[in-house]
Amino acid sequence: MEDNNRNLILATVLSFLVILVWYTVFAPEPVSDQPSGQPLTEQVVGDQPLATPGTGAATTAPADLAAEPDAVEPAGRVAIQSSALSGSISLAGGRIDDLLLTRYQETRDEGSPDVRLLTPSSATADDSIPVDSAQYKPYYAVYGWTPGPGVDASLVPNPATVWTLESGETLSPGQPVTLAWDNGAGQIFRRTFALDDNYLFTVGQSLQNNGDAAFSAAPYGIIARHGRPDTQNNFILHEGVVGMVDGTLVEMKYDDVAELDPIDREGRAEVYNVTGNGWIGFTDKYWMSSLAPAPGQAFTAVVKYADGADIYQTEARFPMQTVEPGTQLSADSYLFAGAKVWEVIRGYEETPGIQRFVDSIDWGWFYFLTKPIFQLLHWLHGIIGNMGWAIIALTFVLKTLVFPLARKSYISMAKMKELQPQMEEIKNRTGDDRMKFQKEVMELYKREKVNPAAGCLPILLQIPIFFSLYKVIFVTIELRHAPWFGWIQDLSAPDPSSLLNLYGLLPYGVPAQGTLLHSVTLPALAIALGISMWMQQRLNPAPTDAAQKMIFAWMPWIFMFMLGGFASGLVLYWITNNVITILQQYTIMSMHGHRPDLFGNIKSSMPTRKRPGNKPGAGK
């Protein structure tokens, strides 16, 4: 028996050591709140803008990649201004390449700059955009036309074409702008941008044929990212390509994009033929850019990687069409560029009808739990107005839903205590015959209608709920920088308090949030978690086995150290869950005549000192 206990203790200690080492070596480093992929951590490989689709029908592969020049003809910019966005459109290429999210700042610090989503390349950047090229990588959306059979490529606009502002001054809600370009051969191309109150651009491309012959061309849209974005590399978070192809969700990591198989005339690419509804783009943790053709519009979605230029891009190509002399061809599509606010992108599913757009949020494998849990949390936040109190209210709701199982569990635990004398009798009668003991105990359970596994059901149910809430707090922007009260001003980040500075009483800094060192300096919420787990254990007598007693005694405090680096919103949920569990168990077991001896269990769990006394033979 002593050998088994020694092995159990050793296995437990080694398990916790493995967890701590894993956390130290493999845990992701704290990252800034600006769009992932924006801060430059390594030299960008090349600064050549993206390649454009080549000649041929839109249903066929474009020509080989051909980068545009390092610099384009000097051109002006058209300002973008709304309550949600600020930035500009470059007349060089008519591209949206300068975009700030004015409702979100990089940090909670006063004066923190707005989050930058889109950034121009060196080819289109100018002094009007205060962008540090050593900090940001080019990331932009550009539109164009693929020349049809017999049409020279110089007769269609490309990413280097300088457009003219034909109408409008500043792009803002209700005030569209139109760019125009005349190819000098009888064809006039126009591009109209409109913007709503949030993050949706409507992009209208038209081709007016004033020539004497038919003119064939196909419009397209491209989102390009130069260089590998600086992702968080977290297995529960998807960052990279995201899209919807006729009802099928497409997700692709940047590593997978760079390793795509080469396709003739495409390079490394993946091509999807969308017959009805779809969209394609890039997602970060909180932000996204996505091309969305009008609902019902067939198009070709392409995910591509340019090896030489180190450019990741997604494309939406429309079918080739022929414009007869004296007629005009128009093609409308949408560009989403902004924050993945659940209520906003859900609204875009209704108007203009972007299919399953809300799935751009990474709900994960437990989407059937994460979605309703978030919706409930969002609803509670709308009523209460504080996300911290909403998490506490959510915990009460979830505990109410699983209460029938919890009630059965606690009743079963009470009945198990009633059976303790009979089990002791069976143990004395069977002696060392373990098989006979187990058989008679199971017969006793069956006769008394007691399920010994009932106590595990609430715990098993809590595991997917806990993971789903962790996912919700980690990936949804509604939790980003969401305050509770006092020192908890960001429920998506770990508790910033620390024992090292006596929780703010001393004028000293503390280790960075999310690091192992910060976790072991006992944030205030972590201490509250440890105490609540310890109190929950004290509702039941300590195990008689010495090894099990030691493991149970240390478990709350080990969890206290391990979970100190978790998001404070998640720790708050766990503390609330423990408190409710204590109240439920105490009440239900008391109602069935087995009131937990809380203070007696606490006293018996304390280490006792042997009082000095007379030893055998003393005094002789």
UniProtKB/TrEMBL annotation:
Quaternary state and interactors: Interacts with the Sec translocase complex via SecD. Specifically interacts with transmembrane segments of nascent integral membrane proteins during membrane integration.
Keyword Membrane: yes
Transmembrane segments: 7-26, 379-406, 456-477, 516-534, 554-575
Family statement: Belongs to the OXA1/ALB3/YidC family. Type 1 subfamily.
Domain Membrane insertase YidC/Oxa/ALB C-terminal: from-to ranges: 387-589
Name of this chain's protein: Membrane protein insertase YidC
Top-level division of the source organism's lineage: Bacteria
Record-level Gene Ontology MF annotations: membrane insertase activity
Gene Ontology CC: one annotated term: plasma membrane
NCBIfam families xref list: PRK01318.1-4, yidC_nterm, yidC_oxa1_cterm
PANTHER family: CYTOCHROME C OXIDASE ASSEMBLY PROTEIN COX18, MITOCHONDRIAL (PTHR12428:SF65), OXA1 (PTHR12428)
